[in-house]
Amino acid sequence: MVEIITEFPQFFTASNFKKQHLLKPDKYKDIVAESLRFLVEDRRIHLFAFAIMVNHIHLIWQMRAGRKKSDVQRDFMKYTAQRIKADLEINHPLVLDYFKVEAADRNFQFWRRNPLYIEMINENMMKQKIDYVHLNPVRAGLCILPEEYKYSSAAFYQSGFDNWGFLTHC
Q1: N or C: which end of the chain has fewer CB within 10 A?
Q2: Alpha-carbon dihedral of residues 140, 146, 152, 156, nearest 10 degrees?
Q3: Residue 115 domain-assigned?
Q4: Model-level pTM?
C-alpha cells in the first residue's frame, strides 16, 4: 500500500521556557529521543534529522498520512513535559520552581509557546536545514565535528548507520 502524504517536511524548533537549560541532563534528552521514537513507531511521523540541545530542539519531520501537525506537536510537547516534570518532582524539586507559571490551564511550563515551523518545499531547503541542525552543536561548542554529538542525527548522515533506529534518510 502506498502512503499518500499531503504535507511537506517541516523544520521545527522548540525552545525551553525562559530559555532555561532544562535539557542539559542526558536523562531529559533521552526523554525527548524516546518520544521521537514513539512518534515514528506509532506511524505519526517520518523523522529526517534532529539535534537535542541544552535549551531547545531542532527537528526535521513530516507528518504521516492522516496526522495533523497540531495534534502531533501537542502530544509530543505534553508528553515530554510531563515526563520531565515527574523526574523534577522526585529528584530536583527546587529546579521545578524555575518553570512555575500562573496560568489558567497549567502550573508549570517547560516549552515556550508557538514553536517555529518552516516547510521544506524543495531539496535545497531540506539540505540547508539539515546542515543547520547538524552544525548547531558545533556552533554551541558541544563538539568539534557534527557526528561526534550523541543527541543528533549527524552520525546517521555521515555513516549511513542509524544508531537511533528511527530515522529516515531524506
Answers
A1: N
A2: 170
A3: yes
A4: 0.93
The answer to the question of residue 102 being in a domain is yes
How far does the chain reach from its first CA to its final CA, in angstroms? Answer: 20
44: cell is: 505519526
Task: Sort 52 into a burial class: Cβ within 10 Å, 0-12 / 13-18 / 19+.
Answer: buried
Q: What's the structural domain count of the chain?
A: 1
pLDDT tens digits for range 109-143: 999 988 899 999 999 999 999 999 999 999 999 99
CB environment 38-47: b (16+ within 10 A), e (fewer) = ebbeeebbbb
Backbone torsions φ then ψ of 34, nearest 5 degrees: -65, -40
For CA atoms 93, 137, 57, 163, give the dihedral sign: negative
Average pLDDT over residues 63-90: 95
Q: What would you report as the CA-atom Rg of the chain, rounded to the nearest whole angstrom?
A: 16
| Residues comprising the chain, all counted | 170
Euclidean distance between CA atoms 23 and 74, whole angstroms: 18
Identify the pLDDT of residue 1.
53
Burial zone of 146 (CB within 10 Å; 0-12 exposed, 13-18 middle, 19+ buried): buried
Return the CATH number at 60. Answer: 3.30.70.1290
